[in-house]
Structures are given as C-alpha cells and as structure tokens.
Amino acid sequence: xxxxxxxxxxxxxxxxxxxxxxxxxxxxxxxxxxxxxxxxxxxxxxxxxxxxxxxxxxxxxxxxxxxxxxxxxxxxxxxxxxxxxxxxxxxxxxxxxxxxxxxxxxxxxxxxxxxxxxxxxxxxxxxxxxxxxxxxxxxxxxxxxxxxxxxxxxxxxxxxxx
Length: 162
Prior knowledge:
The protein is elongated. The chain is built from 4 helices and 7 strands. It has a 4-stranded antiparallel β-sheet with strand order 1-2-7-6, with no helix packed on it. Strand 1 and strand 2 form a beta hairpin. By secondary structure, the chain is α+β, with helices and mostly antiparallel strands.
C-alpha cells in the first residue's frame, strides 16, 4: 500500500486540514467488506446508500450523523438466549456486529432510512443554502446608476423637508 506525505499541504494550504484528514482516512481500507453496500446517485443532489443487512431487524440497527459523518452500526442480539439453544450444521448468514462510517459533504443531510427485504436504504440529499446557490446579476448601464442615485438624494431631501 502506498502512503502519502501530506505535510507540504499543511505548510502551504490554510484551511484544508479537513481535506487532508479525509484523504488519510480514505487510504485506510476496510478489509473485511462486511456488510456489503452500494452508493448510488438518484439525481443531481440526491443519493442512496443501500446496505445488505440480512438477519438484522430495525431494533438491531442504529444510524447516527455527527459533524459530516454518517455512522451505521448493527448489533445483533444473542439469538441463543432468545430462541433457546440452536445448532447449525452450516452458518452462511453473517450476523456479527458491524460499524460503517461515511464522510458526508457539506450540506448533505439524511432524508430517511427504511429497511425492506434485508436491505437498509438511506436516502441523502444535498441542500445548498440560498447564499451559496448561483444567482444572476443584472448589468445596469452607467446612466441608470446615476439616475437612481439622484432619485435617492431627492427622496432623502423630501423626507428631511417634511
């Protein structure tokens, strides 16, 4: 595995430390790959994470967002204490505990989560604040700017006279 030295980035770029931390954490790959998941785009600003959680109920799963991090964890209750002693000849359905973390971009929020047919679906949406959305600026002529500034001074003089 290749490791990158990000110290030059810290010396020359101010305010990008979070980006460097994300690059560092992305280089640490989760080797076991459990549980498997998909990340799909459902539109320009909509996303969905689908995670295979066969054998888990909604009471066994927990979804938490904190500071642009989405954490999905599953903790299966002990089935032996619930259903009595069980003996498996072959156990291919994994029901071990897990925790998956996803870094969310700024202004991405979780809209909803649902569990259906052994898949946990988490819908995400990016909502940019109004001041960050592109806006069209009207270009005025120099004449209209002068007229509007003269109109303001006349209106101000009328208010003072009254």
